[in-house]
Every structure is written in structure tokens, then in C-alpha cells.
Amino acid sequence: MKGIDGWFSEDEGRWYAKFARGLRGGTFVEVGSWKGRSTSFVGPVCNANGTRLVCVDHWGGSRDSLAARYAAALAIEDVEATFRANMKALGIAVEVLAESSEAAAARFPAGSVDRVFLDGSHDGPSVTADLTRWHERLRPDGILGGHDYSTEKHPALCAAVDAFARERGLFVRRGPRAIYWLEAAVSGDGARS
Q1: How are strands ordered across the β-sheet holding 138-146?
Q2: 169 pLDDT exceeds 80?
């Protein structure tokens, strides 16, 4: 991740690599890749484990409080080209879907994805839509996580994640800094509900 601009911290990156390490084979989808800082942590792990790594980003900015910041960056740089160049320089094999999260999700049948990590737009409606569409694509033992779970910086994202989890009887678990993932309730006999 050295030299790649982004908002993923070193400790978040270590957690993210561990999130990928538990999967051998299968499909890992990252929604929101920007220049590839986060991808640089999971890419080598996915490649070593024979996991299909799919990065989804339309590289068109966002609808949240960061919209102006993204627009300014996109006005002076081809961020998609930067992402692709960074992956090539790092030797990371990745399938790129340069399209919206909605369009990308439509490419995957229900129950076909093992891991999803959401780091797209942070506004409530976008987060809810991403959670809904990608949760439907998860295998029964799949895991959905994401970035920027911070009530101080992104309260709308947190509210959307909390509401989604509550409606489906899931628990929001926390990793380092702004990492979250959703976990099913476990019954007394150890079975997931």
C-alpha cells in the first residue's frame, strides 16, 4: 500500500487481509476501490488463495459529504487508470467492473459470493441499497463487511448499517477504527440463525 493514496489505515489493512485470508477459492467483491489502497492489502491474499477478486467502482464520485472532494480529484486525474496501474505495479490479478454497484451486483446470482466489502458512497440511501443488493448475493456462510463506520464522520452510514442489521436479526461487529461486519445470531446449540 506504500505510495497509494487513500483512507485505509495500516491496522485496518491488516484486519482486511485477515478477512480475506479465511477464504480459499470462492469470490471476494470489493465495492469502492478508488486508487487501490485497500485492495493492496487483500489482493495478494486473494491471489495466493486462488480467490477470485472483483473490484467494483464507477470512478464517478459519490453522493455524500465527500462528493466535492471526489469531484476535485477526478477533475485532475484518471483515478480508474491510477487504480489499474497500481494493481499492475503490485502484480495483483483483479477483475475490474467499472460500473455502479447496482449494475455489478446484477452480474452475480443470489448466493454466489463469499465475501463482500462495502466502501462506496456514505449517504444513507446508497448504503442501504448496497447492503440489500450485496447481502442477497452472499452464500449462506458468506460475510459482508465495510468501511467508514464512524458516528462522528458518517452518521448516515452508521444509521443505515444499524437499521439493516436490526431488520434482519444480525449483529454489527467492529474491527479496528472504522471497520464493521455483519454477523448472524448464534443459537444455544451453536447453529447460525
Answers
A1: 95-97, 52-56, 27-31, 113-118, 138-146, 180-184, 170-174
A2: yes
